[in-house]
Hints:
The chain has helices at 18-30, 69-82, 124-133, 140-145; strands spanning 5-13, 35-40, 43-46, 56-65, 97-103, 108-109, 114-115, 151-155. It is α+β, with helices and mostly antiparallel strands. 34% of the residues are buried.
Amino acid sequence: xxxxxxxxxxxxxxxxxxxxxxxxxxxxxxxxxxxxxxxxxxxxxxxxxxxxxxxxxxxxxxxxxxxxxxxxxxxxxxxxxxxxxxxxxxxxxxxxxxxxxxxxxxxxxxxxxxxxxxxxxxxxxxxxxxxxxxxxxxxxxxxxxxxxxxxxxxxx
Length: 156
């Protein structure tokens, strides 16, 4: 049996029923074989970055998994597809977006996956939920760099 790894997944949605989509995705991830849910942040609203459309609903979850990073990525993409995720162009509005932010201490750079997520340190909608559930990961300097971005907690 594989060792369990702590991972963090960023969740976002801004089409359809985004709050419901985010909460449903948390349940879907917790129900995966080889995955155990640990903590979920509050839900946050954020304006789209480098895109248009309605505000996003965002959260971060901490999971434990015995899956490999690529196996987990495939499962996350299956959850996105089930939620009606389409990818018509970069940063398009979406029914659900699941980003593998951190996979233990792993550094992964492949054609299909980059971990740590390459833009997570630039996004308040990732860092504020992440610091809520794992404050030891996000330093004051990182938070200061995104303080001008509009993000606010909407649901605990």
